[in-house]
Amino acid sequence: MKEEHKQYHKRLMTVALRLVKPTAYFMLLLLAYTLGYLSSPSSSSYPRSPVPSSPTPFINELINLPSQLDQFRVKAHCAVPLPSERVRQTILDRVFNGTSPFDGFPPTYVRPLLQRQRIRGWGSNGAVFEHLIQKVRPRTIIEVGTFLGASAIHMHGLTRKLGLEAQILCLDDFRGWPGFRDRFKDIKMINGDVSLMYQFMQNLFSVNATDSVLPVPFSTGSALEKLCELGVYGDLIEVDAGHDFLSAWSDINRAYRLLRPGGVIFGHDYFTATDNKGVRRAVNLFARIHGLKIKLDGQHWVIDST
Ligand SMILES: C[S@@+](CC[C@H](N)C(=O)[O-])C[C@H]1O[C@@H](n2cnc3c(N)ncnc32)[C@H](O)[C@@H]1O
């Protein structure tokens, strides 16, 4: 009797399991589908672009951006400002070992390579230069990116016209850019070294500007760091070197630290199509982070620190 009862129970369990298993699977399947459906960002459209689950981390990143960028600073503060009248001699002493680069210029081996005057620039005579020089009446001008000196020579003429004793420091590695000689074949090369700085210096001679303009022939990054270390600040700073985002971004950040209170920083190529990706993006980001206003003057952007 006991054995019969056991058998009966076993059969009952088998039948019950056969009935319950598919129902359990079905319930599980339904639950998983419902959960998946409810947690998906969009229930109908495919393919889907990734949508951030919450905007908060993105906003936090933007809020923290200035302090994040601060971490990239090499030096927190530049040296105490030098009086303007000591700027030229300080550059001669600290960059040229106390000798003017114009002494004995041009060296004999360079003379045959030079043209009496070869000036070429881009927007280098724009009205912005006169507007800003009249407004700021600068004693020290820092030009970041000089090439053959077109804008430097224009600024020199304007300061002379206004009776200002301004020094113009021209920061450039005087290498141009890879392939620039495709359009400037007449700028000669000496053993792979292009004679851009010599032609720039010759241009200064041709307009009698050697007393008020000096080359600072290094990469913009290292030259701006040096000026920061020496305490050489600009009343007017023009940024017109590398036009890709990273170059423009780095130049603007480094140059802005060298702006005297009340000074103006400005630069070319705010509007050209390609510079939307480089110069314009860098200027806009910089102004937004620092809460500065960008003014426009022709193709130039202008940030006035007053
Ligand atoms: C557009 S040109 C400057 C034109 C000049 N401002 C004018 O209007 O006559 C750019 C110059 O920036 C210089 N340059 C670009 N990147 C540089 C860098 N990282 N360091 C030094 N000079 C740089 C090039 O050698 C070139 O002479």
From TrEMBL:
Pfam families: Methyltransf_24 (PF13578)
Record carries keyword Transmembrane: yes
Keyword vocabulary terms for this entry: Membrane, Transmembrane, Transmembrane helix
Entry's transmembrane regions: 12-38
Top-rank lineage group of the source organism: Eukaryota
Protein name: S-adenosyl-L-methionine-dependent methyltransferase
UniProt organism field: Carya illinoinensis (Pecan)
